[in-house]
Design a protein that fits this description.
By secondary structure, this protein is α/β, with parallel strands linked by helices. Helices cover 35% and strands 24% of the residues. The protein has 2 domains: 86 residues, ATPase, nucleotide binding domain (Nucleotidyltransferase, domain 5); 127 residues, ATPase, nucleotide binding domain (Nucleotidyltransferase, domain 5). The two termini are 15 Å apart.
């Protein structure tokens, strides 16, 4: 079995693959300081609680956008699994390129690379815009020839809500959801409308501009991922919602670099 970890600014999203099937998905907050022992104990516990013997893990692959924890992860894998983890980083094979050069050398986040790897594997021969909703919303345009054409980074829904409530004395946190109308009657529903439709407007603008700038208006598939992405999966601008995109991309990267 293969353990894959997507280490983000807010949380660690993990999964266990048994051949091609995902047997387990889990999440852990990553904002607090984490030692290799704490992470190792957590990983073994979550495996056992889901009837997976830790000894069955034969490989570990990681995408990380938090460099400070990479050493912790390496030590954890060595001590608790006796495995040297594979990290997506400059020099690894991805199948992507930017004008013939290594895309990771340009500082593109490992999670975004993993998303793109999985997207071009799932939808070969298509122009793609991959949108990942996380701490930040990221947009990545990849051509049908696997060339990275460009992208953008936008503040994420949760991050935006935190900033709003921390800086407005009379506003409290609300559940992020699709409201029944854009014009709410209460402060809560108005905040929800602002979050949902404000973000939807940004998505539509980015998709329109990326299609024009990167693909000259040619047919393009818009693939959405990330936890909060599910809110928008039924909007007509979205062609597919793939919740496990990053996990699949990490596994594919590992396989490309055997």
């Amino acid at each position: 079995m293969i353990l894959v970890l997507d280490v983000g600014n807010t949380q660690i999203y993990g999964g266990v693959f048994d051949k091609e099937k995902i047997k387990l998905r889990f999440r852990k907050k990553s904002k607090d300081a984490l030692t290799s022992d704490e992470l190792g104990i957590f990983l073994k516990q979550v495996l056992r609680e889901n009837d997976i013997a830790p000894a069955k893990i034969k490989k570990i692959a990681v995408s990380s956008v938090v460099p400070d924890v990479n050493h912790t992860i390496s030590n954890c894998c060595a001590k608790y699994f006796n495995i040297e983890p594979f990290f997506i980083g400059p020099g690894v094979k991805t199948g992507l390129h930017f004008k013939g050069r290594d895309i990771l050398a340009y500082g593109l986040g490992a999670d975004r690379v993993a998303d793109a790897i999985a997207a071009i594997h799932k939808y070969p021969g298509e122009n793609l815009i991959v949108i990942d909703f996380g701490t930040a919303n990221t947009y990545d345009a990849v051509s049908k020839d696997c060339e990275y054409k460009g992208g953008a980074i936008q503040i994420g829904l949760g991050t935006s809500l935190n900033a709003l409530t921390q800086n407005a004395a009379l506003l409290s946190k609300v559940e992020i959801l699709k409201p029944s109308a854009a014009g709410g009657l209460t402060t809560e529903t108005q905040m929800q409308a602002g979050m949902y439709y404000g973000n939807l407007g940004a998505v539509k603008e980015f998709v329109a501009r990326l299609k024009k700038e990167c693909f000259n208006g040619a047919k393009t598939k818009v693939v959405l991922t990330g936890g909060l992405g599910r809110l928008y999966e039924n909007e007509d601008i979205i062609d597919a919602y793939e919740p496990d995109l990053v996990l699949n991309g990490i596994k594919l990267a590992l396989e490309k670099n055997k």
